[in-house]
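Sharing a chain and its predicted structure for anyone who wants a worked example. Both blocks are below, sequence first, tokens second.
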Amino acid sequence: MDKEKCLAIIQEIFSTNRYVIHSGIIIDEVGCGWAKLHMTIDPDVHINLTGFTHGGAFSTLANTAVGVACCTVGAKTVTLNITRRGNSMGRSESPAPGPKDHRPRLENLRRPPLAALPDHGDHVRQRR
């Protein structure tokens, strides 16, 4: 399947995800096992009380990117844990600076082996 067709299918799948829509996440590009997304930072939605982009916005973007990338290979995924280091990734310059693109660099995304997950009976299958 070519990239444009894959992108259209993935965008259609995520077009019904209200949280992704509310967050302002746009799926720009996809390939086999990867995805490029962006989020335009809206000061009325994504800025915390100190004027910085809320850490949850970056976590949402990273989490969605992993989910989209997994979709490109037909896998479904859920996030058990997400960790971000650092105290700030984007600061607003004025009370209403207008939208900005902040594209965090995602590093060291690892999925734990299923055997390390809590036992949930039939809901989790052990790898062989």
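Comments welcome. The longest strand covers residues 34-41.
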